[in-house]
From TrEMBL, chains A, B:
It is an enzyme of class 2 (transferase). It catalyses: D-fructose + ATP = D-fructose 6-phosphate + ADP + H(+). SUPFAM superfamilies: Actin-like ATPase domain. The keyword Transit peptide does not apply. One of its GO terms (molecular function) is ATP binding. PROSITE patterns: ROK (PS01125). This is fructokinase. It comes from the Bacteria. Belongs to the ROK (NagC/XylR) family. Its EC number is 2.7.1.4. It comes from Exiguobacterium chiriqhucha RW-2. Its cofactor is Mg(2+). Keywords: ATP-binding, Carbohydrate metabolism, Kinase, Magnesium, Metal-binding, Nucleotide-binding, Transferase, Zinc.
Length: 294, 294
């Protein structure tokens, strides 16, 4: 048995699962104070014998194995969690390997092991919701360099019909600033799910997402791109994104993956369990890097 | 002893080197017809006993290990080399493992093993010259997904003072279309090395390069970025690129790497030997993936 936690800013989803990827039981705990939330997490796992614990967490989180604050939540606006030693707290409570990564890296890894990227060796998982984030798996390994990727903040070109300001507090009109849920609402005055499918906002949205996917395809060359998150529950956006992606790339990359754009840019197959199964996959397949290096 | 070939569109640099990275002897052969060029390469290596051969090649090149045309140069405008079976030709002649990668992946790997990225575990190497290309090493491994990255063609935002068309035959005003050597010449009417340091073209150039580096930093989070190629021999461009990079990122990533931008964005330390030493590093440290999988 393995433990899994999808640690989010509004809720913590906890589960016990098996090597096959099957979740045996799970629960959802609201994210309040660290003390209260962690106590309820420990309660869920009480009496269970787990070999390892996988955690896909909200962030930003320090994932530099050489850092003294490895596994700390860092500068989150959720002030009670700022600088919280998540890794150490879990590690000292459970006494088993704890494999910590970002929520999106977890989701990317889960789709690779149990979901829509099982048949390939590289993928990008991008979530488009309140924020935009993405994780990448290359040759079966999660991409980490100086920390975790922050793909939501890449620069995109303005769509000619878009005169909104962009909502990113750091960059204004970066990808997240122009294409996240709040950006859609800022532009159109209503939440995305209330907008008609024919609203021009969706063409603008597809244009920005396609620019990001083109850059991902050129920079890390994933064999599949999975788009999840609240905004992507609007299934009608997928064909628009695929069309814009093909148009922008203009035949520059041609291979069995990109040529079949319907299977190249896809929704998650793990659905609402993507995060939890991703954390489970971390527990099963990854090493506790920090522990090993100490 | 190991063999190394930096296979370029205008010349082939061949070398014999040691595990330490030292090149014992080397030569440069003009790239003419495949028959003539390969005969001269074989002549250079005649009588040498090499354990493996590393090759950093121009492209595009098929690097999909499952492809029937693995190691073929594909759609190059150098028509005599189009569809040339480079890997097979070398493999059958030398009978040793042949490790083939792109020139920029080779250079990135060489800087990682013998050069300016020896002290870190991830880097991007970008060359800015007749074209723009980049290679990436993450956790010591070269990034390959559905093929090799084609980072030169990512999308950038127009600099407000730039009304040039962009020279990329595929995308017009992608990064390569706006920031390669020919793009500089198309914009200013003269070759870059003839332009004064104070010419506004350099501010435009730095802006585009900084956008690309920001996207690399956010997408693959390398611990160091190395900029080589003919255009980057203009050393005065480096401070401009660093300044623009910091300004655009606006403090969003803060860590020991990015905070010290003078050591984050740097010239190659292997100089004119970057390509050859990169090929040597491939021979020493990498496996012949294609051979192993057959």
């Amino acid at each position: 048995m393995f433990g899994a936690i999808e640690a989010g800013g509004t809720k913590m989803v906890c589960g016990i699962g098996m090597e096959t990827g099957e979740i045996i039981r799970h629960t959802s705990i609201p994210t309040t104070t660290p003390e209260e939330t962690m106590a309820r997490i420990f309660e869920f796992f009480a009496g269970e014998s787990i070999e390892a614990l996988g955690v896909g967490t909200f962030g930003p989180v320090d994932l530099d194995p050489d850092s003294d604050t490895y596994g700390h939540i860092t500068t989150t606006p959720k002030v009670r969690w700022a600088n919280y030693p998540l890794y150490e707290t879990l590690k000292s409570h459970f006494g088993v390997p704890v494999i910590l990564d970002t929520d999106v890296n977890g989701a990317a890894f889960g789709e690779m092991k149990f979901g829509g990227a099982k048949d390939v060796s590289s993928c990008v998982y991008m979530t488009v919701g309140t924020g935009i984030g993405a994780g990448a798996v290359i040759d079966g390994e999660l991409v980490h360099g100086m920390g975790h990727p922050e793909m939501g903040h890449i620069l995109v070109r303005r769509h000619p019909s878009d005169d909104s300001n962009g909502v990113c507090p750091y960059h204004g009109d970066c990808l997240e600033g122009l294409a996240s849920g709040p950006a859609i609402e800022a532009r159109s005055g209503v939440k995305g799910h209330l907008l008609d499918e024919t609203d021009e906002t969706w063409d603008i949205e597809a244009d920005y997402l396609a620019q990001a996917l083109m850059n991902f395809a050129l920079i890390i060359a994933p064999q599949r791109i999975i788009l999840g998150g609240g905004v992507m529950k609007q299934q009608h956006v997928f064909p628009k994104v695929r069309e814009a992606f093909k148009e922008k790339l203009n035949g520059y990359i041609q291979n069995q993956y990109v040529d079949n754009v319907e299977t190249y840019i896809v929704p998650p197959t793990l659905g609402d369990f993507a995060g939890l199964k991703g954390a489970l996959a971390l527990a099963i397949y990854k090493e506790d890097i920090h522990h090993a290096r100490r």
